[in-house]
């Protein structure tokens, strides 16, 4: 019998998108069986909108932080509450493409991988200039020897034993830290192309501000992983 899956969705002010994402996961559940997809956990990270109220009806478990604590803390709260052997991290804004999550879990079930990372398709919209991604790619390779093409992807499936052996970083550097620690601990990782879609930042002030924060956070994570390696 295949192991069951717990899906963890961190959410901060996502009331416009989260219902569509959760509804899509219920479509997946109805298609493939609730016995396998039996736990959807939403972590409302101190939202100031109606994220909690809207997500409550569509979640098996909902956790509410009294204040914004960051993505790392949200994922930590979620997976530690999970009961299943396979843990999936998903963003709250995947919308109807969330029902593709079965493709993300497949390498864990079929190929004996410990972590699968989703590679998003290319988008037509011009975003940044790639500085953050290059920093993350080079930093991960320098510190772990792993060559990645999706260093910042938050859509990941993994075994709970992997999470139990490391500590999650915080901020926008969480995926970078997770990749480095997993490789250095000897876990098997793979990347897989999945047609997920989510909110894209553009070449406007909000987009550059977001990527600036991301660059700083990834730099900080790389520094800490260099100074205090997991092993």
UniProtKB/TrEMBL annotation:
Its cofactor is Mg(2+). It is an enzyme of class 2 (transferase). Residues 6-141 form the Glycosyltransferase 2-like domain. It holds the Pfam family Glycos_transf_2. Its EC number is 2.4.1.266. Gene3D superfamilies: Spore Coat Polysaccharide Biosynthesis Protein SpsA, Chain A. It catalyses: (2R)-3-phosphoglycerate + UDP-alpha-D-glucose = (2R)-2-O-(alpha-D-glucopyranosyl)-3-phospho-glycerate + UDP + H(+); an NDP-alpha-D-glucose + (2R)-3-phosphoglycerate = (2R)-2-O-(alpha-D-glucopyranosyl)-3-phospho-glycerate + a ribonucleoside 5'-diphosphate + H(+). One of its GO terms (molecular function) is glycosyltransferase activity. Keywords: Glycosyltransferase, Magnesium, Transferase. Belongs to the glycosyltransferase 2 family. This is Glucosyl-3-phosphoglycerate synthase. It comes from Chengkuizengella marina.
């Amino acid at each position: 019998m295949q192991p069951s899956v717990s899906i963890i969705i961190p959410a901060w002010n996502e009331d416009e998108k989260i219902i569509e994402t959760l509804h899509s996961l219920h479509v997946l559940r109805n298609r493939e069986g609730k016995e396998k997809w039996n736990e959807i956990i939403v972590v409302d990270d101190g939202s100031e909108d109606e994220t909690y109220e809207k997500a409550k009806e569509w979640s098996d478990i909902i956790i509410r932080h009294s204040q914004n604590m960051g993505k790392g803390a949200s994922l930590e709260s979620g997976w530690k509450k999970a009961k299943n052997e396979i843990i999936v991290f998903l963003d709250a804004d995947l919308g109807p493409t969330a029902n593709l999550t079965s493709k993300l879990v497949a390498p864990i079930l079929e190929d004996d991988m410990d972590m699968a990372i989703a590679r998003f398709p290319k988008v037509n919209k011009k975003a940044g200039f790639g500085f953050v991604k290059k920093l993350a790619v080079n930093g991960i390779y320098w510190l772990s020897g792993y060559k990645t093409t999706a260093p910042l992807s938050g859509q990941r499936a993994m075994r709970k034993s992997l999470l139990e052996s490391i500590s999650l970083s915080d901020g926008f550097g969480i995926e970078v830290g997770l990749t480095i620690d997993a490789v250095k601990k000897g876990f098997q990782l793979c990347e897989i192309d999945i047609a997920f879609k989510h909110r894209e930042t553009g070449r406007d002030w909000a987009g550059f501000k977001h990527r600036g924060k991301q660059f700083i956070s990834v730099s900080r994570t790389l520094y800490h992983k260099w100074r205090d390696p997991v092993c």
